[in-house]
Design brief:
This protein is of the alpha+beta class. The chain folds into two domains: 250 residues, Creatine Amidinohydrolase (Alpha-Beta Complex); 139 residues, Creatine Amidinohydrolase, Chain A, domain 1, CATH 3.40.350. It is 33% helix and 21% strand. The strands form five sheets. Strands 4-3-2-1-5-6 form a six-stranded mixed β-sheet, with helices on both faces. A hairpin with a 2-residue loop joins strand 8 and strand 9.
């Protein structure tokens, strides 16, 4: 929803610091029930195997051959983890991989990082290093030459920073740089059974954490109090906390909240949007309920959002345009008097986003998106209705596409009175 992801907001303290992640600080901690720990639901989760990393590289190479792309360059980030298993961070020092159309990929990293690189990488790769007084992109050019290339198309993964692509242009001017989106998306968008299993575990953790904290929300609690409870429950249940966003009262009318402090009172709308990671794969579940008795308007809006979420599931079929899911639900909301389009009162953000190793991945359930739904694609289904100055409702569950249609990672919220099945 919007340009910033929920993880981005966590990093910058968005929504008045309402999102408490790992290491977050809340106004007050909640006591546990007699010190009893929650079960670790992720204890038996299996990380992605070396064989699967190798399969991913092979598929990318087949796509490159079909598109006459001679090599693919990826820097540190989720794509590097996806293809090689290499967990690294982005800095001014380039660490990345060059995957040739055929043959063994080459990881390029600073000399002093090589032992750490070899410790974490899972795929079969060659490691080449550069010293601080050397140009790392000369090693990229050298790798291309060693692949037997003296020109052609070099694909750049879509999140690679400008200084990296510019450095490659200068070091290897005989090559044409093109977008690597068709290659990386052509592999990453379609999740394997192992990926689906990890995402299922993450969703199980998040839903269990919700169910744990729901009866423990008390009058007078702040956003930070509730978020801290959610994050602690998530950690105990085995998830790496990605975000625990809590929007109370009027703040629920704005998808990412406000900077105005809020506390729970009778009749408060409580909108929570939370997710965790399990072996790099993420969950994303939103729930909305009322502390006390809902008003007729709150109940009507909640029920309308729920109908939209169910309509999205009915629409999402293999071979259907991804954009049609958003367009169908938006048309239904407009028929109920909301909108038009993305205006409020109404659904002011896309209906859903792709999800996997990143909380937001291509493609989206958004108006005009022509990508056809196919087995293995994973999405959030998160319609909302937002009434600025009053309150908002969002319900979010993630799904994966099968030949028979969408399968949910988490059951839909039954009602505003019983938000958890």
């Amino acid at each position: 929803m919007g340009m910033l992801t929920k993880r981005d907001l966590l990093k910058v303290g968005g929504a008045a610091g309402l999102m408490i992640g790992a290491g977050g600080v809340a106004a007050r901690a909640q006591p546990s029930d007699g010190g009893a720990a929650l079960p670790n639901l992720a204890a038996d989760a299996e990380p992605i195997s070396k064989a699967e990393h190798e399969t991913r590289i092979a598929k990318a190479q087949r796509l490159m051959q079909a598109q006459d792309i001679h090599a693919l360059v990826i820097e540190a980030g989720s794509a590097l983890v996806y293809f090689t298993g290499l967990q690294w961070w982005r800095s001014e020092r380039f660490t990345g991989v060059v995957i040739p159309q055929e043959g063994t990929p080459v990881v390029i990293t600073p000399y002093f990082e090589e032992p750490s690189i070899r410790e974490t990488v899972k795929a079969d790769v060659e490691v080449r290093t550069w010293h601080e007084n050397e140009n790392p992109f000369a090693l990229v050019a050298g790798a291309l030459s060693d692949f037997g290339l003296d020109g052609g198309k070099i694909a750049i993964e879509e999140t690679v920073r400008h200084f990296v692509s510019n450095g490659i242009v200068r070091a290897a001017p005989a090559f044409d740089l093109v977008s690597g989106m068709s290659v990386t998306r052509g592999v990453r968008m379609y999740k394997s059974p192992a990926e689906i299993a990890l995402m299922q575990t993450g969703n199980d953790v998040t839903l269990a954490a919700y169910r744990h904290i729901y009866p423990r929300v008390e009058l007078g609690m702040s956003q930070g109090d509730i978020a801290a409870m959610m994050s602690e429950a998530t950690r105990q249940l085995g998830g790496n906390v990605e975000f625990s966003m809590v929007l109370l009262n009027e703040a629920s009318a704005y998808p990412h909240g406000t900077r105005s402090p809020q506390t729970v009172r009778e009749g408060s709308v409580i909108l929570m949007d939370c997710g965790c990671g399990v072996h790099d794969y993420e969950s994303d579940i939103s729930r909305t309920w009322v502390f006390g008795e809902p008003t007729a308007k709150q109940r009507e809006v909640w029920n309308t959002v729920k109908e939209g979420q169910e309509l999205a599931l009915e629409t999402a079929k293999v071979g259907v345009r991804a954009g049609l899911v958003d367009e169908t639900v938006r048309a239904f909301y407009e028929a109920q008097g909301y909108g038009p389009g993305y205006r409020t009162p109404g659904l002011s953000h896309r209906l859903g986003h792709g999800i996997g190793m990143d909380g937001h991945e291509p493609v989206n359930f958004v108006e005009g998106e022509d990508t056809l739904l196919a087995p293995g694609m994973c999405f959030s289904n998160e319609p909302g209705i937002y009434i600025f100055g009053e309150f908002g409702v969002r319900l979010e569950d993630c799904l994966y596409m099968t030949e028979e249609g969408p399968e949910l990672f988490s059951p839909l919220s039954p009602s505003i009175d019983q938000p958890f099945a």
